[in-house]
Write a structure and sequence with these properties.
- About 45% of the residues lie in helices and about 10% in strands.
- By secondary structure, the chain is α+β, with helices and mostly antiparallel strands.
- The protein has three domains: about 5-70, DNA Methylphosphotriester Repair Domain, CATH 3.40.10.10; about 80-190, Homeodomain-like (Arc Repressor Mutant, subunit A, Orthogonal Bundle), CATH 1.10.10; about 205-445, Hypothetical protein, domain 2 (Endonuclease III, domain 1, Orthogonal Bundle), CATH 1.10.340.
- The strands form three sheets. Strands 5-9-8-7-6 form a five-stranded antiparallel β-sheet.
Length: about 525
């Protein structure tokens, strides 16, 4: 990790892309701020300033570089590693909570006063909640300006601005150009591969958006899609033979369909949005689902130093720990998967979705490239809580545990997103009869994006360790895993594919599909 200005300057001198998103560089002689890998001539040390967020750089009077596009850099992996107030607040702001509920809504979610929240964020991130949210709105606006033909009036309100004037002023302040100029320059941006393909849209029906989601390399994209493919719920998710992943998203103001294609250094995302205001939350959830803000070199260095894991890390560098697009869906997966195989859990989850899920609007379904394979959104927590526990394809006791846990989510006693306190969520779920440590740990890893979860009793983990000549007793496995902190979740994703002998050269979809762990 970079801990001082000297280290930051060394990173920008070497144009090191690994640190894009970790910090931003303000250049006093030009008045712009850049990502560390900006290809422009490195400024003199006395002419640069370093900031932890784009909002902090903008608050200091700098505008975004139009060459390196710092607003499109990957997010800082620090927010996933940390579970403190600042990191939880940052994740909620990225999901658009300020736009929906104001700063007071974020403070209430975190159980602190607005004043305390303001003080902590300024101290930790160099910017208060409103400037951080404003920076996010500017990034959303730029995507819409450059990738659609929508009128600026629609873009302004879709991005979360209260007025056209606020929209115009913010875009000029952040990017040093008016919305009209940014739209006229989009051809250059597309040629550089910054904004994705331009989409012409007349405003009728769902809005298609195509963009690139940046990530750090190495990126084991095939493996993360393979993990999702093996667990894809029929009607809610679908995966093409070429590894293209489709799924339905339930977003704050409507449904959406997302199509994701993993590339060596980025992910191509095609979104169909019923409501443009959901663009920011949709992007944030896709990034969490694929773990795009991870620091793979730090993870690989830590796990690869262990002789047990070294062969796995060398064979698949940049492996990710997939998150969840829907906390309730992940809760159901985890409860179902306590005692059944991956394939069995997928089948039961599909039956739940078919019986209780909400059908896609016909206009959205007709516009999807996945055809008839996407039919519905996964049931909401309130729907599941009200269901008959005996109607699920599982023992009655487990059905009761599922409805009780969903009831806690429905009444907001438990909130399953990365803005929640991980320990508090685990404690509340453990109080539900029939939910144990394996289930709560798995939920923490995926729904809460905890990078340091280990499952010492998981059958697949123990088999994987046994195939590597490691310990096969839970107690000894847990002791060994202490060496892998704070990246034990990533160790799990290395061990699960190793739990059964693999055909020569099998990776991605094949290895994930043949895993026989208890993982849901």
């Amino acid at each position: 990790m970079i801990i001082d200005d000297a280290g930051c300057y060394a990173a920008i001198r070497s144009k090191d892309r690994r640190f894009d998103g970790w910090f931003f560089v303000g250049v006093t002689t030009t008045g712009i701020f850049c990502r560390p890998s900006c290809p422009a001539t490195t400024p003199r040390r006395r002419n640069v300033r370093f900031y932890p967020t784009a909002a902090a750089a903008q608050g200091a009077g700098f505008r975004a570089c139009r060459r390196c596009r710092p607003d499109t850099a990957p997010g800082s992996p620090e927010w996933n590693v940390r579970g403190d107030l600042a990191s939880r607040a940052m994740r909620l702001i990225d999901d658009g909570l300020v736009d929906r509920e104001g700063v007071g809504g974020v403070a209430r979610r975190l159980a602190v006063s607005e004043r305390h929240l303001h003080r902590v964020l300024v101290q930790e991130l160099g910017a208060a909640p409103l400037p951080l949210a404003r920076s996010r709105r500017a990034q959303t606006a730029r995507v819409l300006i450059e990738t659609t033909e929508l009128p600026f009036t629609e873009i302004a309100f879709a991005a979360g601005f209260a007025s056209i004037r606020q929209f115009n002023d913010t875009v000029r302040e952040f990017f040093g150009a008016s919305p009209t100029v940014l739209r006229s320059d989009r051809t250059t941006s597309i040629k550089r591969g910054r904004s994705g393909a331009h989409v012409r849209h007349d405003g009728a029906g769902p809005t298609p958006i195509s963009l690139r989601l940046a990530t750090r390399t190495p990126f084991a994209g095939d493996e993360v899609v393979g993990f999702l493919a093996a667990r894809a719920i029929p009607g809610v998710e679908a995966v093409d033979p070429d590894g293209t992943y489709h799924r339905v998203l339930r977003l704050p103001t409507g449904m959406a369909i997302v199509t994701l294609r993993a590339q060596p250094d980025h992910v191509t995302a095609d979104l169909l949005l019923a409501d443009l205001r959901d663009l920011g939350p949709a992007v944030a959830r896709c990034r969490r689902l694929l773990d795009l803000d991870a620091d793979p070199e730090a993870v690989d260095a830590a796990l690869g130093a262990d002789p047990v894991l070294r062969p796995l890390v060398v064979s698949v560098p940049g492996r990710r720990s997939p998150g969840a697009a829907d906390g309730t869906e992940l809760l159901v997966r985890a409860v179902i998967g306590q005692q059944v195989s991956v394939a069995g859990a997928r089948t039961v989850a599909g039956r739940v979705a078919t019986a209780l899920g909400e059908d896609l609007p016909p206009v959205l379904r007709a516009a999807s490239s996945a055809g008839d394979r996407l039919e519905r959104a996964f049931p909401a927590a309130a729907t599941l809580a009200a269901a008959d526990p005996t109607s699920f394809s599982m023992p009655r006791a487990r059905g009761l545990a599922l409805t009780e846990a969903c009831g806690l989510v429905a009444d907001a006693s438990v909130v399953l997103d990365p803005g929640s306190d991980r320990e508090e969520v685990e404690q509340r779920l453990l109080a539900v009869k029939g939910i144990g440590p394996w289930t709560t740990a798995y939920i923490a890893m995926r729904a809460l994006s905890d990078p340091d979860v280990f499952l010492p009793t998981d059958l697949g983990v123990l088999r994987g360790l046994g195939n590597l000549a490691g310990p096969t007793e839970p107690k000894h496995a847990a002791a060994l895993a202490e060496r892998w902190r704070p990246w034990r979740s990533y160790a799990l994703h290395h061990l699960w594919p190793a739990s059964a002998p693999q055909p020569p050269g099998a990776t991605g979809l094949a290895s994930a599909s043949t895993s026989m762990s208890q993982d849901a």
